[in-house]
Amino acid sequence: MRIREWDPRSASANEIHSLVETVNAVLAADLPGDPPWRDVQVKDYLAETMPGERRISWIAEDDRVPEGEGEILAHVSILLLGDIGVLEVMVRPDLRRRGLGRELIAVAARRAYLEGFSSIGVEAIGGTPAIAFYESLGFEREYVETRSVLNLETVDWPALTAMANGLGSGYRIEYHPGGPSDVLMEAYARAKAEAQHDEDDLDLTPRSSDPQRLRDSLETLHRRGLKPYIVLAIHEATGAVAGLTEVVVPAQHPERADQYDTIVVREHRGYGIDRAIKARMLFELRGAEPGLGQVQTWNAQHNESMLKVNAELGYESDRDWFEYIADVTQLVQRLESS
Ligand SMILES: CC(C)(COP(=O)(O)OP(=O)(O)OC[C@H]1O[C@@H](n2cnc3c(N)ncnc32)[C@H](O)[C@@H]1OP(=O)(O)O)[C@@H](O)C(=O)NCCC(=O)NCCS
User: Fold this and answer.
1) Which domain holds residue 204?
2) 166 and 279 co-located in one domain
3) Mind listing the pLDDT tens digit for each residue in 52-88?
4) Which residue puts its alpha carbon closest to atom 29 of ligand 1?
5) Does one domain contain both 211 and 128?
6) Which of 96, 100, 122, 123 to mutate to test the pocket of ligand 1 (most atoms within 8 A of CB)?
7) Residue % of the chain over a pLDDT of 70
8) If you placed Cys at 187, which of 74, 118, 241, 247 could pair as Cys (CB 3.0 to 4.6 Å)?
9) Do the Cβ atoms of 324 and 119 come closer than 8 Å?
10) 120 and 185, same domain (yes or no)
């Protein structure tokens, strides 16, 4: 087996295709209910990052085949952002438990160490081998969220109509496919900034809350093949963004969308905004994305009001997703001494 640094930008179409096959083998083994990936904008998905962030990748391939001509059997990447490196690793299921995962983490951790990063974070999915894997490497569990999935076929559309219309007076709903217009960006950023204080997770996917970061973030989504849809509640007297909900439809698996942030600004709570914007979003998605079958979302278990609204919409909880963290120096030492 050969492990080498790999730049998706210069990868051949065959390599990208082989990576998609590995992703799909991993999904079939670990998350059999999740839709497989298509070979659409995968290079963009892997190569593009927010300005100021860097993603470094390595692959494992058969060392009897010339570089670049064989299959990608395993992949690791580390996204360097702020003061934390975020790891993602996958090993083809038929090659597991031979030390390959550990070797890939060692390569990525060493680089994070050399680049001066002090901690590494990772998301691990409950009920998959990743939990025992990261715990065996000394990663510590910091945060847990539950994933819930809404199946659009089971949605009670008449009930949703009532929710979409049940908005308190003084507010209106706006739909912004692709992202909010530039004139709204300041107000949108203010609403995002408000929610920043409520979070206690590891910031592995930091929220952008100033107007320029938001523009960059929306542009980065588009470049990665992730199409954003946004529904806003506007407080008519002030023009403020009172609530927002964001869904992204990935070109790599357009059957399953990701619900990103839903925020209702504190002083605007209690007016039915959460229900109304999420219900409206589902109507818009149904029209705009005929191939869409499900929407998935992640919530902290203490976020009871959000969980209640999601249950009313028809979301069903699926499994837990954990954020783990490790100190880079300790991780490198542990991996080198084993
Ligand atoms: C997690 C993963 C990378 C591990 O890769 P791997 O090559 O099998 O890992 P290693 O062989 O290096 O295992 C190192 C240690 O981790 C622990 N471990 C790994 N898999 C384990 C399992 N299934 N059960 C118990 N312990 C496990 C063991 O302590 C193991 O050491 P040992 O084999 O000497 O007992 C691999 O299972 C994988 O690709 N999972 C999918 C990751 C993912 O992102 N899934 C989401 C869907 S896209």
Assistant:
1) 156-313
2) yes
3) 999 999 999 999 999 988 899 999 999 999 889 999 9
4) 136
5) no
6) 96
7) 96
8) 241
9) no
10) no
Compute the distance from residue 105 Cα to the ligand 1 centre, in Å: 11
115: in domain: yes
Q: What is the pLDDT of residue 303?
A: 81
Ligand 1 lined by 1 (C-beta under 6 Å): no
Mean pLDDT for 252-270 is: 95
Output the domain CATH number for residue 167. 3.40.630.30
Same domain, 181 and 130: no
Q: Return the ∠ at Cα 158 (arms to 232 and 284), rounded to 5°.
A: 35
Closest Cα to residue 10, out of 47, 61, 63, 53?
47
CB 131 less than 6 A from any atom of ligand 1: no
Count of structural domains within the chain: 2
Is 151 a member of any domain?
no
Ligand 1 mean position, distance from CA 129 (Å): 5
Q: How far is the CA of 75 from the centre of ligand 1 (A)?
A: 13
Cα 134 to averaged position of ligand 1 atoms, centre (Å): 8
- Tally the C-alpha atoms within 13 A of residue 73's C-alpha that lie toward its C-beta: 19
Model pTM greater than 0.70?
A: yes
Residues 276-315: pLDDT tens digits? 999 999 999 999 999 999 999 999 888 888 889 899 999 9
Q: Is 152 touching ligand 1 by the criterion CB < 6 Å?
A: no
